[in-house]
Amino acid sequence: MEERLTVKMRRNQWWLTAVGMLILGAMEVSVPSAAETAAGSKIVVKNFMFAPTPLTVKAGSTVTWTNMDDEPHSVVSDTGLFKSGGMDTNESFSFKFDKPGTYRFACSIHPRMVGTIIVQ
Question: Phi and psi of 29, rounded to 5°?
């Protein structure tokens, strides 16, 4: 009887170890590589602010703004280069920055909400 318990305990320990390794492996896969991070960046719209700002990205990067507020917001370039429509909660807008420079933007609904993207 004691031998059966030992075999079952070893088998259970093996399964728990295997499941744990699978979970850790899945967590590692979900972490973006440096190349993926350089290729795209995110700005969160929350508490009537853009964060992070300023945001520095490489030329060719796509920046995605996601509205996490309960109020609608927009993203509008001060030069007219890009303009989102009104974004409700959990909606996003993306723009690809091809050329180096400094790009300023605001929320057209709440003009005091401003931000800057620096493209290198």
Answer: -65, -30
